[in-house]
Amino acid sequence: xxxxxxxxxxxxxxxxxxxxRDAELKKMRIIATALLLLMAAIFIFGNHMEKNYxxxxxFVRAFAEAGMVGGLADWFAVxxxxxxxxxxxxxxxxxxxxxxxxxxxxxxxxxxxxxLTTKLVARxxxxxxxxxxxGKFLSRPDGGEGxxxxxASRLMGDIIAxxxxxxxGKVAKDAMRGxxxxxxxxxxxxxxxxxxIKEGRxxxxxxxxIKWASKTLDSNEEIIxxxxxxxxxxxxxWTGLDDRLADAIVNGLTKLLSDMANDPDHPLRxxxxxxxxxLAHDLKHxxxxxxxxxxxxxxxxxxxxxxxxMDNLWQxxxxxxxxxxxxxxxxxxxKFGEALTKLGSSLQKDEHLKKQINRFARRAxxxxxxxxxxxxxxxVSDTMKGWDSNTLTDRVENVVGSDLQFIRIxxxxxxxxxxxxxxxxxxxxx
Length: 430
Prior knowledge:
The protein is an all-alpha fold. The protein has helices at about 5-55, 55-80, 95-100, 100-115, 120-125, 130-140, 145-160, 165-180, 185-200, 205-220, 220-230, 235-240, 240-260, 265-285, 285-300, 305-325, 330, 335-350, 350-385, 390-430.
């Protein structure tokens, strides 16, 4: 099944469910209206029979009369939730369309206060075994849970695709930018350089710099010669000393770079290593250097290119999640799939690794709830604000409308019984 077919089948399923609920709503609406009309017919018939034959026909008339009143009152109450009854703009009707923004904000606040609280989320995820579940999923890609895994993957893909890309992306990029702004970058770079020096991994860096300088010199030899000739006086040019000087400079630099490349103990190499060591120390301990790095970091984050890079990172990450979710077998194929399978086995067997991952997952979930819970629930309120009144009315009525029609039916029957009881009491009282 292709991604397009999978996505289409889910849309068709949602459309079928919507149509089924809509048909059920129409059916219940017809039943409630038919019952109200039946009460009206019984009332007319009972009233006629009471006038002409008296007897107990008054009970029939009272039952139907009260049933009509109850049915009409509940029809008005149910209709007033979604629209103006008979298109008449009566005050305090069409409640849901008029208050859709307030409903969205109230719903968002309800979710934040009752579901996305730090204590509740922390309690729910306390015993959550993310590492074990991930390990089982990764280590058994072709296991008996294949259909469930495919279904869950497609569901996850649909959820990711349905989320508001712009708002969700803004939340993710703001979180990323906030973390980058809070990182004290200089000490981290200093520690990285120190680790490189201790393990000797800085030497390939020096080798690379020397090779780059040598290639740069070869490709720019003509520029050096032209610079010497431009600065030479007339006597030097007449005597050819400018060419000799240029040759000496180029040959000297070439020999120096060659000696540095071939001699690991060359004095200039040692100077370079001393410079890297000092740089690592300054990055870790010198406030002035740390301020410089912080200023460079701020300039980098303010650069439009960084924003573009974050946009691309978010889009690529989101698309990668979609591809992996909707095509889990493709994601698990090849050497990458083998590596993921081994990782899954490690996650199941290594208790220390499992503990660390679960702790990180719990902290990440709780931290996200605490720091971004308000922004998460605004997705609900903002989405509802973006709907027009007809869309909101149709969706809410489609979900709960058929149940509300039972209120009309019950109101008609209960009203009739109450009217019957009142008529009986009035009839038999002295």
